[in-house]
Design brief:
The complex is a heterodimer of chains A (98) and B (307). Chain A has a single domain, classed as Beta-grasp domain (Ubiquitin-like (UB roll)). Chain A is built from two helices and seven strands; from the N terminus they run E-E-H-E-E-H-E-E-E. Chain B has 307 residues and is an alpha/beta fold. Chain B has two domains: 116 residues, Roll (2,3-Dihydroxybiphenyl 1,2-Dioxygenase, domain 1); 153 residues, 2,3-Dihydroxybiphenyl 1,2-Dioxygenase, domain 1 (Roll), CATH 3.10.180. Chain B contains six helices and 17 strands. Classes of the chains: A mainly beta (98), B alpha/beta (307). The interface between A and B is medium-sized, with 14 and 19 residues. The structure holds FE2/S2 (inorganic) cluster (FES) and fe (ii) ion (FE2). FE2/S2 (inorganic) cluster (FES) binds next to loops of chain A. Chain A: One of its GO terms (molecular function) is 2 iron, 2 sulfur cluster binding. Chain A: It comes from Pseudomonas linyingensis. Chain A: Pfam families: Fer2 (PF00111). Chain A: This is Ferredoxin.
Chain lengths: 98, 307
């Protein structure tokens, strides 16, 4: 059984449910929310970069051009490669696309 | 003026996960896997292509394009073009035969848009896949997915379009087939051809250098494009836009993304170009229609999402 978590985008206040098997971006699109920009959905373009403010998560492979080791450490990750392991608070990454 | 460059030869793409990339390029697009090398690269081709390969996938920690190559007439032409590139001011790098399996020596240079290009004269010819060389049948059995017939062109984003056009036309013998001009008369998009196709490579003006917009593969019919769209839905593949028609080139098209975020296109139809044809011009105020002929509206993602 997959678990479901609550993702909240703190700037817009929007929130949606996301299973642990689904990327945050895919869950957002499925629930017709528009708080993170949608690009390639493949970790390559950097458009969906977010700051995870709180919560536990795992990440799939992300283009190093957009997320380096320090970014990853600081929770600056790509929403299309972000899988929740608890409820998450996110917001758009400070610089948007890097 | 022709300079001995014949056509697109290959494109090397970076992917984040080779297994997922092959699921996409082989099972979904229907390219044929023809070889692998000790660097872990995988070589693919469309079934109608006579040369051994046209797409090389390399697993890397970053998506995008490593380089695109054009095939030239013969080794003497390659030598001459190498000198012409140097005279133009390009840094030219030699890559020995066999660095890509089955490919002769290559010369590599950078365009003023920040993209790396290669020229080569020789590549092993394995013939069209799955059909005999003599008395060939119409098509082979056993093709997968979209049954992409060939790697057709790439659209690239970067700066210095004028200088790049000069390089491609004066040194390499490409024609400007189609263009988009802004209100100040500046060219913001250029579609270049070295044969009769509407484009073999195209460039759009962009602040960041050396970006890939899409790698494109040819299908025969509009029905094939629709069927490609069906397959994109069936496999839950990331879609960009389409099926639709372009104003530029008038091709019938659909755009989607590979699992690493590189954009792909499959398309059919489109304009043709002869060397005496003046460039087809679109004005930037009609850019929406130039890109998406039916929506007539620009889609932000199409303009800004690059690898
Ligand atoms: S949408 Fe392109 S990296 Fe997430
Ligand atoms: Fe295209």
């Amino acid at each position: 059984m997959s678990q479901s978590f609550r993702i909240t985008e703190t700037r817009s206040g929007k929130s949606f449910a996301c299973s642990d098997e689904q990327s945050v971006l895919a869950a957002m699109e499925q629930q017709h929310q528009r708080c993170v920009p949608v690009g390639c959905r493949g970790g390559g373009c950097g458009l969906c970069k977010v700051q995870v403010v709180s919560g536990e998560f795992d990440c799939g492979r992300m283009s190093s051009r957009h997320v380096n080791a320090i970014d990853r450490e600081q929770g600056l990750v790509l929403a299309c490669r972000l899988f929740p392991r608890s409820d998450l608070a996110i917001q758009p990454a400070p610089s948007g696309r890097s | 003026m022709k300079k001995g460059v014949m056509r697109p030869g290959h494109i090397q793409l970076r992917v984040l996960d080779m297994a997922k990339a092959l699921e996409h390029y082989v099972e979904l697009l229907g390219l044929i896997e023809v070889d692998r090398d000790d660097k872990g690269r995988v070589y693919l081709k469309g079934w109608t292509e006579v040369d051994k390969f046209s797409v090389v996938l390399r697993e890397a920690d970053e998506a995008g394009m490593d380089f695109m190559a054009f095939k030239v007439l013969d080794d003497a032409t390659l030598g001459r073009l190498s000198e012409d590139l140097v005279a133009f001011g390009c840094m030219v790098e030699s890559i020995p035969a066999g660095e890509l399996k089955g490919c002769g020596r290559r010369i590599r240079f950078s365009a003023p848009t920040g993209h790396r290009f290669e020229l080569f004269a020789e590549k092993e010819q394995t013939g069209k896949w799955g059909i005999a060389e003599i008395n060939p049948e119409a098509w082979p059995r056993g093709l997968k997915g979209m049954k992409a017939t060939r790697f057709d062109h790439a659209l690239l984003y970067g700066g210095n379009l004028d200088e790049t056009l000069r390089l491609f036309s004066e040194v390499l013998g490409f024609d400007l087939a189609e263009q988009v001009i802004d209100p100040e008369g500046k060219r913001v998009a250029q579609f270049l051809t070295v044969g009769m196709k509407a484009h073999d490579v195209a460039f759009i003006l962009h602040a960041e250098q050396g970006k890939l917009h899409h790698a494109s593969f040819f299908l025969e019919t509009w029905d094939d494009v629709l069927r490609a769209a069906d397959l994109i839905s069936m496999t839950d593949t990331s879609i960009d836009i389409g099926p639709t028609r372009h104003g530029l080139t008038h091709g019938k098209t659909i755009y989607f993304f590979d699992p690493s975020g590189n954009r792909n296109e499959v398309f059919c139809g489109g304009d043709y170009h002869y060397p005496d044809h003046p460039p087809v011009t679109w004005t930037a105020d009609q850019l929406g229609k130039a890109i998406f002929y039916h929506d007539r509206e620009l889609n932000e993602r199409f303009l800004t999402v690059l690898t």
